């Protein structure tokens, strides 16, 4: 049975996997997406605050 990492690696070698990687790279370059990611990560960095 293939390990999870092997299965992911094999997926990235498929045409669909390569398309999804390119789509993710394009999204990562988008300033709006970067800001969303920063906001999400800042919630985890601040710690758990109960509301």
Strand content range: under 5%
Proportion in helices = over 70%
| Unreliable stretches covering 5 or more consecutive residues | none
User: What is the rounded Rg?
Assistant: 16 Å
Oligomeric status: single chain
SSE order, as H and E? HHH
Class of secondary structure makeup:
mainly alpha
The best one-word shape is flat
Distance between the termini: 45 Å
Give a description of the structure.
- By secondary structure, this protein is an all-alpha fold.
- The protein has one domain.
- Helix content is 78%, strand content 0%.
- It has helices at 4-12, 15-29, 31-46.
- It starts with a helix and ends in a 5-residue tail after the last helix.
- The mean pLDDT is 90.
Question: What is this structure, in a nutshell?
Answer:
With 51 residues, the chain is mainly alpha-helical. It contains 3 helices and no strands.
């Amino acid at each position: 049975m293939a390990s999870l990492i092997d299965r992911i690696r094999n997926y990235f070698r498929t045409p669909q996997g390569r398309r999804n990687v390119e789509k993710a790279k394009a999204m990562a370059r988008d300033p709006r997406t970067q800001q969303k990611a920063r906001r999400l990560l800042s919630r985890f960095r601040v710690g758990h605050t109960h509301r």
